[in-house]
Amino acid sequence: MKCYDCDLDGRGATTGIGICSRCNLVVCADHGHVTPTVLHRPGGLGKATRDRPGRRVVCRTCHAAEVSA
Ligand SMILES: [Zn+2]
Ligand SMILES: [Zn+2]
Questions:
Q1: Which of 3, 37, 38, 50 is most buried when burial is the number of CB atoms within 10 A of its CB?
Q2: Ligand 1 centroid vs 8 CA: distance in angstroms?
Q3: Whole-angstrom Cα distance, residue 36 to residue 43?
Q4: pLDDT tens figures, 5-22
Q5: One Pfam family from the UniProt entry (predicted)?
Q6: Looking at 1-69, which runs of residues are DSSP E strands?
Q7: Nearest to 17 by CA among 57, 60, 53
Q8: pLDDT digits (tens, 9 = 90+) for 28-63
């Protein structure tokens, strides 16, 4: 699969490294942001988060949207 943003930029068919967890488009290492994410336990008492963080990939558009006001 090729990176959607590279395709838009006319950079050709750059191989994607992941899929944006928001818009589900394919992103390459340049355009994707891999961020740690804290996982939550469903329900239950006591600590609601898990000890180890997971990770997810978002594309630059969704990443910019997430950090925008
Ligand atoms: Zn790209
Ligand atoms: Zn996205």
A1: 3
A2: 9
A3: 22
A4: 999 999 988 999 999 999
A5: DUF2180
A6: 18-19, 26-27, 32-37, 54-59
A7: 57
A8: 999 999 989 998 888 877 888 989 999 999 999 999
For 61, phi then psi, to 5°, come to -65, -45
Ligand 1 centre distance from Cα of residue 62 (Å):
14
List own/partner pairs for 2-11 with CB under 8 A and 24 or more apart: 2/26, 3/27, 3/28, 3/30, 3/31, 4/31, 4/59, 5/31, 5/59, 5/60, 5/61, 6/30, 6/31
Strands 26-27 and 32-37: unpaired
Between the CA of 49 and the centroid of ligand 2 the distance, in Å, is 25
Measured CA to CA, the distance from residue 25 to residue 58 in angstroms comes to 9
